[in-house]
Here is the input.
Amino acid sequence: MRLAAAIVMSLAAIALASAESATNAAPKTKGGAKQAPAKTKQAKQPKSDKGGVPKAISDSYSAVPLAERIAIQGDLVWTGHYNGLVNGEFAERAVAAVKAFQKRNGGKETGVLNQPERAALSAAAKPKRDAVGWRMIEDGASGGARIGIPAKLVPQQSAIIGGTRWASARGEYAVESFRITQPGTALAAVFERMKKEPAGRKADYSVIRDNFFVISGLQNLKKFYVRAQARGEEVRGITILYDQAMAGIMEPVVVAMSSAFMAFPSAAAAVAPPRRKVEYASGVAVGTGDIVTSREALEGCHVVTVAGIGGADRIAEDKGNGLVLLRVHGASLKPAALGGAAPKGAEVTLLGVADPQAQGGGNAVSATKARVSDTLGLDTPPALGFDGAAALDAQGRLAGIVAVRPAVIAGPTPGTSAALTPIEAIRAFLDAQSVAPASAAATGTEAAKASVVRVICVRK
Here is the structure.
C-alpha cells in the first residue's frame, strides 16, 4: 500500500509539473530566445497556440469567462479526469480530460461540453467536493494565495509564522500555508531546504522548474506534499500532511488542492461573474408563514420579497445544503406535503416560477419533468427562476428543493446545471429551526402549486 500511494503521488506531481512547465517547453536559442515550433505540412485543421489544440476548440473556450473555465477544470479534477493546473487554460491536457469525461458518459468526444454535458459534469463533481467541505479561500497570511481547503477534514484554523494552519481535531490531516519574503530569497535554496526540513522529512519525489517546485514523501509517520511558487524574491506555498492510513481519502484531495493552488492569483481569476441586481427564484411554503428556498439565489441580497406578499425575513440558513428559511408576516400560505426520498433514477415533477423574461413578464407557477441521477443531479435543468423550486415525487409530495446554477458553456449560449437538495436535508433543517411540517397538507401537483411562490432578491 505504501508503494502504491507513493506511485500515485509521484504521478500526480509529475503531471502537475509537466502541465505548468508546458508553456516553457519550446527550445531556446543560444541567446535565450524561444524558437518558434516547426510548421507542420498539410495540417488537417487550424491549430491554436495552446499546445496543438484545434483552433475551433480554442476559440470556443476563449469565449467562456475565465471563472467558468476554472470551474470546468475544477469539476474535471473531482471526477478524476483531469490532473493539471486549474487556471482556465484549455490546452491539450484539459481538452483531453473533457473528451475522457464525454467518452465515459457515452457522448461524442468533441472536447467541448454542451449544456447537458456541463450539467452532468457539475452534478458528478458536487457530491465529491461536498463530502470534504471543499471551499476556495484567499489566505491573507500568505499574501493572498488562493487555496482549496477541505473544511470538513481540517475544521480547526490557527495562525502560524508566515501563514495559516488548518487541522483535524485528532491531527490526522493538516494543511499549512507559507510565505517567504526575505531579501535574496531564491527558489532553489527554499527547495533544497524543504526537502530536508523539518527534521524527520524524507522526500521520495521532488521536481523544480523556473518558478515552482513540488516535493512529496514521508515526514516521520505522515505523508507530506509541498507545492510552492516564486515571483521575484517571494515564495508562497502549501504543505499538506496526513496519516498514511488516510491515504485513500486524502490523495484525491491532495491532487485537487495542488491543482487549485494559485500562489499569485490574477484579479480575473479571483473574481466570480457578477450577479444580477434583481434576481428571481422560487420558494416552497412549509408553514403558514415559512418558506424554504435556495441559499445561492439569495447570496448578497439587500432586500428579499415574496411576490404578492411583501418583505421576507431571513430566519436561518444551512450552508452545507444550500437552504434558507424565510418568514413572512400577515400571510396565510398553503404548505406543501412533505414526502420521502426520491429514488435514484426516478422522475420528479418540478414546480417553480420562471424568470419574468421567460414568461413575458408573467408570474405563473409552471411544471416540468426531470430525472434524478445517482449523484442527485437533474438531467434536464429547468429555466432560470426555478432555483429553490419544488421537486415532487410520484404521489405529489415534496421530495426536495431544486438548486439551479447558471453556467456558461463553451460557445455563445448560456446554460444551467441543476441538482436536487433531498427531502432528508430539508426535514433536518426545519427540525433544527423548530418548524413542524404541516400534517394535513394536500398532495398532488395542483395542490402543491399553491405552495410555490416567487422570491425576489434585490442587491445593491
